[in-house]
Design a protein that fits this description.
globular; alpha/beta; 6-stranded parallel beta sheet; binds 3-methylbut-3-enyl trihydrogen diphosphate; binds magnesium ion
């Protein structure tokens, strides 16, 4: 099997990376932003066409106010510093997640970057910011319920395809989801879209995750057998 073209990453372990070095957690987040830059740059050469990055979850508001503020500051800096390069390098940026809880200036920057890069097609970068899979599903259900209540569609018109359209994502489902830092859980990331994704859990914290390692994981994906509930031809399934 070939390398995956649609990949999602749970960028975890920034805090531990910093604490192990006697640094404040925010130092790990800063280093993490540098990794984002490198991994995004590496995507076209690695054959990745859509990359979805988990940057801030709907549950991350539970963190100390000072850490949340530092993360928001880093999002602003990232957008400001990277916008020109992303635009120049053919990256189309889209944000997924619930935006109304974010500060108006960040929302405006997000919308500006989306608008500025919307015609690019070398790489689609989906950034999950204030994203929670359950929240996304509930918001989609509300949209559909409103259409039913307005008489625009009947309950029987609600199909998987229509439901998927009501979600935030506009890209093909990820074939592979990678999580760094050795944690083996999904933490509310893409529960609908990753229903049949392969997973790769790597021990390195996100600030230590390199493009070379990324490439090695993509190669390993090529050795996997995906069955989607069926049976391989070699095991007696239909040819
Ligand atoms: C991931 O690193 C970044 C965000 C969740 C924003 P963490 O901050 O979760 O790092 P650990 O898991 O505490 O080490
Ligand atoms: C998931 O990591 C969210 C992001 C990477 C943005 P967390 O560190 O928040 O997840 P838990 O709390 O360990 O499950
Ligand atoms: Mg974490």
């Amino acid at each position: 099997m070939a390398r995956p073209t649609n990949v999602a990453i749970i960028m975890d372990g920034n805090g531990r990376w910093a604490v192990r070095r006697g640094l404040p957690r925010v130092a790990g987040h800063k280093k993490g932003v540098q990794r984002v830059r490198e991994i995004v740059r590496a995507c076209p050469d690695l054959g990745v066409e859509t990359l979805t990055l988990y940057a801030f979850s709907t549950e991350n508001w539970k963190r100390p106010v000072i850490e949340v503020a530092a993360l928001m500051r880093l999002f602003r800096i990232y957008i400001r510093m990277e916008a020109a390069e992303l635009e120049r390098n053919g990256v189309c940026v889209r944000f997924i997640g619930e935006r109304s809880a974010l500060e108006p200036d960040i929302r405006a920057m997000m919308a500006g970057l989306e608008e500025r890069t919307k015609d690019n097609d070398l790489l689609t970068l989906q950034v999950a910011l204030n994203y929670g899979g359950r929240d996304e599903i509930v918001r989609a259900a509300r949209k559909i319920a409103a259409q039913v209540a307005a008489g625009e569609i009947a309950p029987g018109d609600v199909t998987e395809a229509r439901f998927a359209e009501a979600l935030d994502t506009r890209c093909p489902d990820p074939e592979l989801v990678i999580r760094t830092s050795g944690e083996h859980r999904t933490s509310n990331f893409l529960p609908w879209q990753a229903a049949y994704s392969e997973y790769a859990f790597v021990p390195e914290c996100w600030p230590d995750f390199t493009p070379d390692q990324f490439g090695a994981i993509l190669d390993e994906f090529g050795t996997r057998e995906r069955r989607f509930g069926g049976v391989e031809a070699s095991q007696g399934g239909p040819a």
